[in-house]
Amino acid sequence: MFGDFQGMMGKLKEAQQKIEETKKRLDTVYVEGTSNQGNIKVTITANRTIKSISIDDSLLQDKEELEDYLIIALNDALKKANSINDSEMAAAAKDGMPNIPGLDMFK
């Protein structure tokens, strides 16, 4: 029995290591979000860290319009990053999970 338990614990540690490696790798995956007209571009990592924001000069005259477009671009980038992050983390967790009866949520 203890051999099985130790094997499961080893698998769990491997899963945790894969998840940590995936998190580090996702820091190097860049996603770009844009506003509807492309006058704002936001670059973030798949771990949802903002790396850059580019704003067209034409928006600098209208604060409210700038804010609206910025929200659109940020939400676009976050949606893409969330999708990548969720699928990559689920794959990492699934690969490393031991086969525990009743805990097949990642299968």
UniProtKB/TrEMBL annotation:
Entry-linked SUPFAM superfamilies: YbaB-like (SSF82607)
InterPro entries, A to Z: YbaB-like_sf (IPR036894), YbaB/EbfC (IPR004401)
GO terms of molecular function: DNA binding
Coiled coil: 5-32
Domain of life of the source: Bacteria
Localization in the cell: Cytoplasm, Nucleoid
GO CC aspect terms: bacterial nucleoid; cytosol
Pfam families: YbaB_DNA_bd (PF02575)
Keywords, ordered alphabetically: Coiled coil, Cytoplasm, DNA-binding
Assembly with partners or alone: Homodimer.
PANTHER family assigned to the protein according to its UniProt record, in alphabetical order: NUCLEOID-ASSOCIATED PROTEIN YBAB
Family named by the database record: Belongs to the YbaB/EbfC family.
Function: Binds to DNA and alters its conformation. May be involved in regulation of gene expression, nucleoid organization and DNA protection.
UniProt name for this protein: Nucleoid-associated protein EGM88_03395
Organism: Aureibaculum marinum
